[in-house]
């Protein structure tokens, strides 16, 4: 079964750091780009960033709201992606989803979603 | 950034109804549009990608159309399990963006 499982969420104080993990199974992890999407309580979906597969350079893209504070990385040998979140703010409070990117000639959709992990930033 | 505006934001309909949701992009995005369904407390699920391609396993009552700046998700005959919130997403340019969502409720 193709699956993504997030972990690492929790309660953290403003200004502190947290690292989320996304563990994949059921597919060849290294062949896919991965993205993070978040959803604040009662709100819509917000794209956070993505990391391409090594085939496409393993490079990253970020939303302006997190650029310079969040870093996405991957360890293909372990089938894990990470979201390092620094200088956290109350506005970062959300459920964070790890998602697999479907690529045809370019990224066309997010076809596999994890169950999400909750991050709460509060003092 | 490319803005996506969904209409309506809220829709009340009955089982068996045909419903359509529109997603308008602030600039042309070719066919780089996807639709997702999200039920309360659950992760979103991919329904349609490349504007009109049905994701494997998704019932054929769901269909997508459009290109450029205007797109439509249609459910031909609503079933009880279809009531949820629907989002469009553009993947033409960074940052990737989502529409604000359309909540579909039972009348």
Briefly characterize the structure.
Chain A has strands spanning 3-7, 10-12, 18-25, 34-39, 45-51, 60-62, 70-75, 80-85, 94-103, 107-113, 117-121.
Describe the overall structure.
The complex is a heterodimer of chains A (123) and B (107). Chain A has strands at residues 3-7, 10-12, 18-25, 34-39, 45-51, 60-62, 70-75, 80-85, 94-103, 107-113, 117-121. The model of chain A has no long low-confidence stretch (mean pLDDT 97). In chain A, the strands form 2 sheets. In chain A, strands 2, 4, 5, 6, 9, 10 and 11 form a 7-stranded mixed sheet that branches. By secondary structure, chain A is mainly β. Chain B is an all-beta fold and 107 residues long. Chain B has strands at residues 4-7, 10-13, 19-25, 33-38, 45-49, 53-54, 62-67, 70-75, 85-90, 97-98, 102-106. In chain B, the strands form 2 sheets. In chain B, strands 2, 4, 5, 6, 9, 10 and 11 form a 7-stranded mixed sheet that branches. In chain B, strand 4 (33-38) and strand 5 form a beta hairpin. Chain A binds chain B through residues 35, 37, 44-47, 50, 61-64, 97, 102, 104, 106-111, 113-116, and chain B through 1, 32, 34, 36, 38, 43-46, 49-50, 55, 87, 89, 91, 94-101.
């Amino acid at each position: 079964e193709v699956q993504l499982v997030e972990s690492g969420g929790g309660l953290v104080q403003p200004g502190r750091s947290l690292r989320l993990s996304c563990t994949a199974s059921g597919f060849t992890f290294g062949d896919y780009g991965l993205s993070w999407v978040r959803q604040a309580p009662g709100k819509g979906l917000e794209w956070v960033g993505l990391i391409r597969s090594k085939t496409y350079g393993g490079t990253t893209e970020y939303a302006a709201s997190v650029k310079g504070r969040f870093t996405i990385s991957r360890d293909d040998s372990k089938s894990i992606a990470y979201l390092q979140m620094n200088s956290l703010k109350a506005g970062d409070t959300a459920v964070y989803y790890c998602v697999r990117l479907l690529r045809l000639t370019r990224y066309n959709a997010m076809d596999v979603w994890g169950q999400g992990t909750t991050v709460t930033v509060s003092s | 950034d490319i803005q996506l505006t969904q209409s309506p934001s809220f829709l009340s309909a009955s089982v068996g109804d045909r419903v359509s949701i529109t997603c308008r992009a602030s600039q042309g995005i070719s066919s780089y549009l996807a639709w997702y369904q999200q039920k309360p407390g659950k992760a979103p699920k991919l329904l349609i990608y490349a504007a009109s391609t049905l994701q494997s396993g998704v019932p054929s009552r769901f269909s997508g159309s459009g290109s450029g700046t205007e797109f439509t998700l249609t459910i031909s005959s609503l079933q009880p399990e279809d009531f949820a919130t629907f989002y469009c997403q553009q993947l033409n340019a960074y940052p990737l963006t989502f529409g604000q969502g359309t909540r579909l409720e039972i009348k």
